Structures are given as C-alpha cells and as structure tokens.
Amino acid sequence: MLIFDSGVGGLSVLKNIKKILPKMHYIYILDNEAFPYGNKTEFFIVQRSIKIINTVKNIYPINIVVIACNTVSTIALSILKSKFSFPIIGIFPDIKTAKKITKNKIIGLIATKATMNSSYIKKTIYKNISKNTIQVIGTNKLASISEKKIRGIEVSQKKLKNIFKSWIDLPVHPDTIILGCTHFSLLEKEIKKILYKTSSIYFIDSIHTVTSQIKNYLKKLHINQNIRKNIFLYSKYSISLKELLIFLKKYQFTIIKHINLN
Ligand code: DGL
Which atom of ligand 1 is nearest to the CA of 10? Predict the structure, then answer.
C-alpha cells in the first residue's frame, strides 16, 4: 500500500489505517519538497501525483494507493484512476454528512485554496447549498501550522484567529465543520477553542470513510501484502525533517530514506 501527502496530514490517515488494519504494511511518501500543495496549480498537482506513483511503482510492488490529501484527491483522483490499474482511494470533504448532522443549518468548510478552487468542490457546494449555508475558508496557512505543531512549536492563537476571522465575526457560528484537509485533523482542539467557548461543535473528518473503503477493497479484491516492511520516503532533506523524525518513532518505520521525485 502506498500512502502519500505533502506532509504530516497523511500521517493522521495512516494512524487510522494502522488502528483498523494493524498487520498492513505500507510505504508513506512525504512530499515535503512540494509542500504546500495548496498553492500549486492543478497541472502541477496532477503531474506530481503521477510522478510519485510511477517512481514508487518502479521500486516497490504496489497494489493499492491511498491519496491522503484532499487537494490531490479533489483535483487529480479521476485522472489517476484512469492512468493506473490498481485501486486508488482518495479523501474528500464530506459535505453530504455535514448536511445530515447540522442543526443550525450553518456548515463550515475549511480546505486549502487549491481544493476550494477545484471544480469538484464548486459543483458539490452548488448541489448541496439549498436549505443550508456553507461558510467557506480557503487557506494555505493552516497546514503549515499543523506541520509546526507536530514539531513541538506552540500554535499561535493570533494566527488561528486571523485564519478564522470570517467565522468568528458571524452572528451564528457553524455548528458543523468539515475538515477539508488532512493536516487540519491535528488542530481540532485549537480550532474548537477559538471558535466555541460554550456551544458544541461537530467535526466532519473523512479519515474514517477512507479507512473503511480500504478495508472493503482489501476484502473484495483479495489484495495480499506484498511488502513486509513499513517504509517512509521523503522528497527533501531539511532541518525540519530532522525534527519530525522523533514524532515518526511511534509509526515504527523500518526504512526512512530520501526519494528523488524530479
Ligand atoms: N494535506 C493536504 C490536504 O489534505 C495538503 C496540504 C498542503 O500541502 O497544502 O489537502
């Protein structure tokens, strides 16, 4: 199984996969060289994901790919599916579930700018807007805050308040928030704190949907394990990667090394 993301967001997806499928082995690609995906063009995102899958495919036998990134999934999933023969699973902001859950009919959707500009999101919002208000925030700043938090840097309240200003200023806040980027799962607590002093809030995180999809695929297609190790590959060496290695310990990767994606 190949799992990839621009950064640590995909690790939240991996953590959930490990919980449900503890015997599964995987290759995790941290494409930190291209981080953040949220400020890239659709052309770049499509080409980059094809490059990642092809490069890994030439080194390791892969039989299933998990795109642990909403930005890549909303922009490139259908193209990738038509290019490769193995199953490719993506992650998407789940507006449908939010619609079922919201009581005050105000849904918040926060994702990267690239995700927000994708035609997938535009179409989905258009289809689901009746009877609900969808308040959107497109930001490329929040993913960087998650990257820093993982490395032990305190989350700045001021920066968070700036990102969420349009929601803070609303007379009634969304009671249901769709986390439309895998990096944001790491910041649930902080988001809750700045937006909701008293009332409750429901976060919609598609991580769980992805895991159950993987489970179904594995059962249906009788996919066997074809790698025996957990491998972590990064596309760029940097000091901040060194800081991340401590956090990676709990994932028990047996191989951690560089992969050239150029
Ligand atoms: N974690 C990613 C997502 O789910 C991308 C964040 C970024 O690189 O901008 O959208």
Answer: 1
